[in-house]
Amino acid sequence: MTQRNAFAAVCYLCLFVAGCTSGRKATITKEPPSLKALYKNDFGIGTALNTEQIEEKDPKAAELIARQFNMATPENIMKEEIIHPAWDTYNFDLADKMVEYCKKNDIKVNAHTLIWHSQMPAFARRIQSVDSFRTFFTNHIKTVAGRYDGKVYSWDVVNEALNEDGTMRKSVFLQKLGDDFVTDAFRIAQEAAPHTQLYYNDYNNEQPAKRAGCIALIKKIQAAGVRIDGVGIQGHWHLGKIPLKDIEESIVQYSALGLKVMFTELDIEVLNRNFSGADVSQTMQGGSSNNPYVNGLPDSVQQKLASDYEALFRLFLKYKNNVSRVTLWGVHDGQSWLNGWPVRGRTNYPLLFDRNYLPKPAFYAVAALKK
Ligand code: XIL
Q: Does residue 192 line the site of ligand 1, with CB under 6 A?
């Protein structure tokens, strides 16, 4: 029996005994261990919340969120297109609800994201003049980061500014504002939000070339005397291909810059994909061979997923003094964005809780590390 299975068996037994002694029928699934409690001395355990969850329209999710997580990222509702839909219009309703919901449940908010080339409002894409674009950029950061200072724990100030080879992505921000836009964004954010942790976030920035670009970018911000508190590695990885060595090297190198490291959007894709990373504009051909697990995940794959998660969390624990947070990109499999990207309508299984909100073997593998 593996350590993981032994731990799961002990949990089941305790619940069974508790159920018998209280005269109730024991349901082994009601009270799984709490990850936030198990990891409380190590790092924060986060999740991404969708609109339904923020509006408390999903009671089963609400139970899970309160029990398992002490940090949360809005999956979409703080992105530019939602929070700032027109030049003079800001829509804070859902973001305010998120802040309130998290306060009530003792959850820290990791706000996401101020400056990103995806999910931008149409009006911002249409701005022609450099001056107007800079005004949009400045107003956006000042207004949004300013409003939530002291209410959210952190901001992903800039998301995905880099190409895979470590050069700067030719985004609308780079084209209009030039190479220094990242430093400028942090400078404006530090003024508007002096009490908020400020992070740079990207995918594949554990890979050597992109990591080197990321380090250069961070050094540039620091050299300008501007505050940056941490770097987020998104962590959209693939089953059996977790780049553990690159992740370890990245934790070491980013920490050497005096930054906290966090894993901000963790999920492990179990379906086929012909590229790595998480460029939301990239798509792939569908087809049933690309969607083999509609009726359930075979046990062998489930076990592999558990081993991958176990190896990852073992590594995170080794560096618990440098890693401040691990956030799963969603509460349960049914909600994962990977059911719709990069192929629409697939049945994916990337998280720790299944479609019935029940813990998977991967959950017990992660919990068992803290036994
Ligand atoms: C994704 C959301 O999960 C989806 O609901 C949305 O349609 C597209 O964006 N990197 C990021 C996240 O930084 O904001 C993305 O979230 C996933 C990739």
A: no
Helix (H, G, I), strand (E, B), or coil: what is residue 49? Answer: strand
Spacing, Cα 74 to ligand 1 middle (Å): 10
- Give the residue ranges of DSSP H helices in the chain: 3-21, 35-38, 51-54, 59-68, 80-83, 93-104, 122-126, 130-148, 172-177, 181-192, 208-223, 244-256, 299-318, 361-368
| Ligand 1 pocket test, candidate residues 50, 73, 75, 237, most atoms within 8 A of CB | 75
Question: pLDDT for 19-57, tens place per residue?
Answer: 333 334 444 445 899 999 999 999 999 999 999 999 999
Domains annotated for the chain, with CATH where assigned, are: 3-368 (3.20.20.80)
Is the CB of 205 within 6 Å of ligand 1?
no
Neighbours of 282 (CB within 10 A): 12
* Ligand 1 centroid from CA 115, angstroms: 14
Q: Is the CB of 76 within 6 Å of ligand 1?
A: yes
Active site residue 160: yes
Nearest CA to ligand 1 atom 5: 337
**Nearest C-alpha to atom 3 of ligand 1 is from which residue?**
337
Identify any residues that bridge with 236 across adjacent strands, giving them in sequence order: 267
* Atom 7 (ligand 1) nearest CA: 337
Is 265 catalytic? The answer is yes
Distance, in Å, from the CA atom of 256 to the CA atom of 248, rounded to the nearest integer, reads: 13
Coil, helix or strand at residue 205: coil
Residue 318, both tokens: 């080794």
Each residue's pLDDT tens digit, 299-341: 999 999 999 999 999 999 999 999 999 999 999 999 999 999 9
State how far the Cα of 117 lies from the Cα of 331, in Å rounded to an integer.
26
Residue 12: pLDDT band with limits 50, 70, 90: very low
Q: pLDDT tens digits, residue range 197-236? A: 999 999 999 999 999 999 999 999 999 999 999 999 999 9
